[in-house]
Amino acid sequence: DMKVTQMPRYLIKRMGENVLLECGQDMSHETMYWYRQDPGLGLQLIYISYDVDSNSEGDIPKGYRVSRKKREHFSLILDSAKTNQTSVYFCASSSPPAYEQYFGPGTRLTVL
Amino acid sequence: DAKTTQPDSMESTEGETVHLPCSHATISGNEYIYWYRQVPLQGPEYVTHGLQQNTTNSMAFLAIASDRKSSTLILTHVSLRDAAVYHCILRASYYGGSGNKLIFGTGTLLSVKP
After folding, report:
1. Interval B31-82: pLDDT, tens
2. How far is B28 from chain A (nearest CA, A)?
3. pLDDT in tens, A71-98
4. Residue from the list A43, A50, A98 with its beta carbon closest to the beta carbon of B104
5. B1-8: which pairs have CB atoms within 8 A and are 24 or more residues apart?
6. CA distance, residue A18 to nearest chain B CA (Å)
7. Measured between CB atoms, does A93 come within 8 Å of chain B?
């Protein structure tokens, strides 16, 4: 069963703390993504990773960084979290040729 | 970015066939039409996609107009589990760069009555 997992599912942090969001996939997909989704808005792309140590900025990379040391694992890091980074974060993965993206269940991050 | 237009909401009853329209008048020749759906508290779920020909899978039938300026996602025998926001998205066919990006709008909220 193809699956994208995210940990944790819910997280509350204080402003200035560091945040680590984890994503895993069991489909050996080369490409992985981090998005955020805010109420009433669509998905905003933060970062794309084309494979291990091959990461590119998306549309809103400021305040975020990523790490991909294994194909099946992709991390999103917030160094010194800000209140405006409160959001739902989705990880996704895809592989050619169809390019459909498979999404995880999301992490609900609240920064106080 | 290329844009799509969808109705804000539609209603149906269990067992019915639902036609979800999408207008994409400025679609480019290298853009695929993708459909995703999302229920509250869950991540988006891939439904189907097509380029020019109608396509079908276990989830839905995608009808694409001959001029590709519109498409319709057809759900047969809908159930309560089909209640979701359905997003029609255009995506470039080349791999890498903006071809990987999914631009979600507000989509169509499909309500299903028992």
Report:
1. 889 999 999 888 999 999 999 999 999 999 999 999 999 999 999 999 999 9
2. 18
3. 999 999 999 999 999 999 999 998 864 5
4. A43
5. B1/B98, B1/B103, B2/B26, B2/B27, B2/B28, B2/B31, B2/B90, B3/B90, B3/B105, B4/B88, B4/B89, B4/B90, B4/B105, B6/B86, B6/B87, B6/B88, B6/B105, B6/B106, B6/B107, B6/B108, B7/B108, B8/B106, B8/B108, B8/B109
6. 24
7. no
